[in-house]
Each structure stands twice: as C-alpha cells, then as structure tokens.
Amino acid sequence: MSQENVELVTGLLPGPDVDVAPLFRDDEKWAALSAGAALAFHPDFDCYARIFEGDWSDSGMDGFRNLYLKWLAPWETYRQDIEEVIDLGERVLVLPRDFARRQGSTHEFEIKTAVVFTFIDGKIARWEVYFNRDEGLKAVGLPE
Question: Which of 82, 85, 74 is nearest to 109 (CA)?
C-alpha cells in the first residue's frame, strides 16, 4: 500500500511553477481544488504546522485551508519545488524547498521544509508541516 500512498501524495502536489497563494485565497479556486482532493482525505483528517512562533492545528479541509491562509498572510506569492519524496510505509515524507515573496518585493525567501502525510485506510488522515526541516526529519525518525 505504501507505493499507492506515495502516488496519491505526489498527485496532489503542485508543480514547481505553481503559485499556491491564489489557490487558497480565492474561494472559487479553493472550492474546485478541495472538491477534487477531498476523496483523498480521511473523514477525520487533521492538520498540524510547527512554525517558528509555535504550533498550529486544525481539522478537515476547512482547517487545512485556515492553516495555509494563516501561513500565507505575509506572502504575496508562494511556490514549492519538491526535492525528495520518501516512502515510510503508512507515512510519506515530502522534502520541498519553498519560495515566498512579500508584497512589494522582488526578493524570494527560500525555506527548506518537511511535510509528513499519515495514512489510515488508504486516505490521508494527518498532514504535518515543519518549517524547520531538521525537526520534520526527527519527527519521522530520520537523521537530521
């Protein structure tokens, strides 16, 4: 089942040139995106973000959007380049490099993050993002 988990996750990830900020900010784009992805998520799906100023958590697709909107607040654009996807059985670890730009700036910030998808019954039951990659690696028992 783990290869199917990897394929499900990689199928949901945006391409490296996709600015995800409008996908979460625009109600119509979000409705289309979440309707298409909802079948991949467990009914008890929860999400968690360990960021620099503390931990955020929520549940369901609306909670997922809320966490993303909170994170995106200072950024005008936000995109990811996936460096590696690691099969961990019932978990899939994604190691992206995130690129974000503040409004009025031409400079992109680069952030190396770690995202853990946990599966139950072939569906994503938990999404965890660590904005410090080493913490994410540690959370899944891999060397930093």
Answer: 74
Task: Please state whether beta strands 114-120 and 108-112 pair in parallel, antiparallel, or not at all (unpaired).
Answer: unpaired
Predicted TM-score (pTM) above 0.85: yes
Please state the separation of Cα 12 from the chain's center in Å: 10
Q: Which residue has the tokens 């998808």?
A: 117
CA distance 79 to 68: 12
Q: What is the pLDDT of residue 54?
A: 77
- Contact present, 142 and 136 (Cβ < 8 Å): no
**End-to-end Cα, the chain, rounded Å:** 27
**Angle value at C-alpha 81, between 44 and 41, nearest 5 degrees:** 15
